[in-house]
Amino acid sequence: MIEPFTLAVAHAELEDLRARLRATRWPEPATDPRQGVALDRLQARCERWADEYDWRAAERQLNAAPQFLTTIDELPIHFLHARSPHADAFPIVLTHGWPGSVVEFLDVLPLLTNLGFHCIVPSLPGYGWSGKPSEPGWNVERIARAWAELMARLGYERYGAQGTDWGTSVAASLGQQDRAHVAGIHVMPPLTPTTAAGRQADDDAGYSTQHRTRPQTVGYALTDSPAGLAAWIGEKLDTWADPRSPIPERRVLDTLTVYWLTGTAASSARLYWESAGDVTRWLEGPLRPSDRIDAPTGCTVFAHELQRPTQAEAAARFVDIRYWSEPARGGHFPALEQPQTFADELARFFALVR
């Protein structure tokens, strides 16, 4: 069963968020800027979040998408389903990652539907308004199986899959598990062993280590303190984007608010516990035969992406690359940073396989 879902966050929840932000206990400034988010920058963001930010605008956009809930493998799955007016529209499932949400795609949905795509945008298990798994096992492969069931339930017999961050791995797994229905996958970027230099700083892996080893521990702090959440997530939204195309501040605050209202700091981090070991192998090798992706693949590697493999390196894992592109501007959150480029990249690839 698929049911419509409408957001109507209680006013009291928003007032509680504002009160917590205004009552934050702040530490002293760092003694070296390399130690983390600057105190004055975080204070300014939290002040905007408390005093200027309008959640209702995002809520209206999400409701207009529109939104739905369905239960798959005993877990509620939340998703947006934006249909194109074109009679020959092609369905694509778009998957976000961490620290993302379905909010990432709000600005590209009108572009994609106008280009002839029906867009299905699920919230990952443990993210947004999808259910929080109560037992281990919801890894990338299980999520991909759930997405295949979702697309079948919607009546789509042939579709494409796109992903960024965790979504690249979900899309790749869909290409392996549902080849009878997946026309092609588009990954931003392809995860494969590489010697090429990416844009992730050497000292920027602490969050991942915490998530994959002690997601529950960090979850207590982030679920209780919106300022802490803004530091933990906001740092990545700022530093993983291309500095020439920063994410609009309202979208940063939309993203923070989704994590806050849904209380998903711990549950979202658990995906690292489930699948970070596989991702390490895909990035560092050696690859296993089961890591091979035979589905027709499009790859877009943005200039400020964290991983930037060459096409030859990507071909070691993705053996049927039909499209390769390296846009001059954009980072780890292309749908937020460069929405028109994002939409054009999808259109160019899926024109080859749809």
Textual characterization of the structure:
The protein is α/β, with parallel strands linked by helices. It has a single domain (2-22, 37-350), classed as Alpha/Beta hydrolase fold, catalytic domain (Rossmann fold), CATH 3.40.50. It is 43% helix and 15% strand. The chain is built from 14 helices and nine strands. The chain has a nine-stranded mixed β-sheet, with helices on both faces. Helix 12 (311-314) links the parallel strand 8 (297-300) and strand 9. Helix 7 packs across helix 8. The mean pLDDT is 96.
In short:
With 354 residues, the protein is of the alpha/beta class.
Descriptors for this entry?
Rossmann fold; 354 residues; nine-stranded mixed sheet
Named CATH architecture = 3-Layer(aba) Sandwich
Query: CATH topology, anyone?
Result: Rossmann fold
- Could you tell me the strand content as a percent range? 5-15%
Low-confidence stretches: none
Shape: globular
Number of domains as seen in the coordinates:
1
- End-to-end Cα distance: 28 Å
Q: How is the biggest beta sheet arranged?
A: 9 strands, mixed
What portion of residues is helical?
40-55%
CATH class: Alpha Beta
What series of H and E elements makes up the topology?
Answer: EHHHEEEHEHEHEHHHHHEHEHH
Strand order within the widest beta sheet:
1-2-3-5-4-6-7-8-9
Radius of gyration: 19 Å
Mean pLDDT: 96
Structural class, from helix and strand content?
A: alpha/beta
Q: How many helical stretches?
A: 14
Give the oligomer, counting copies of the same chain as homo and different chains as hetero: single chain
Number of strands: 9
Tell me the name of the CATH homologous superfamily.
Alpha/Beta hydrolase fold, catalytic domain
